[in-house]
Amino acid sequence: MKLEEMNRITEEFISQKLYEAGQNSADTDGYSEIPLHADARLKCAAVLVPLTYHQDEWHILYTRRTDRVESHKGQVSFPGGTCDDGETTPEQTALREAEEEIGMNPADVKVLGRLSQMITISSFRVSPIVGVIPWPYAFRVAGVEVARVFTIPLLWLANRNNYWEFSLRESERSLIAYHPYDGELLWGATARMTVTFLKTITLIT
Questions:
Q1: pLDDT confidence of residue 39
Q2: What is the spatial distance between Cα 188 and Cα 177, in angstroms, rounded to a whole number?
Q3: Rounded CA gap, 103 and 101, in Å?
Q4: Which of 39, 83, 92, 123 has the fewest C-beta atoms lying within 10 Å of its C-beta?
């Protein structure tokens, strides 16, 4: 895909595609990294998928977790976490976590919609919330949780030569992993959410 073809990707286009995907989806739970049983106890979580426009193209913002967090040490992720008591929507959770982790004021996020929920290997039912954020931005990183904030161009993420998907041994599930970008390795649940988003806005099929 050429850079000029990205001109059709507007906030309105993204919002409409997210809406259509939600209306037409038969599987509202999206992809599961673990076998689900009737008595499975899943924890509620939400992440923010932050989009920003700079250098004449769209980017997605990611964080790299520190080695001091309880789980997923050193991994690339979206800002997000477990739902708090009293939160009634995943948007509340995602925006609160983004404020806590990277200092993103919820008022500065324009929410465009949701991706389908995903069940992770750690038994979280995660709701990805897509939103546009301003750039540049004075991030305030929570040093205990977040080691780095960075962005990756949408055009690079949508290039099929930059990632691969392979089946896990003795499993019907698969793993998505990207080639390193700026020294960062995007893989696992965050990579799958990224690819789901790219498919939703028809950048890849």
A1: 62
A2: 6
A3: 6
A4: 39
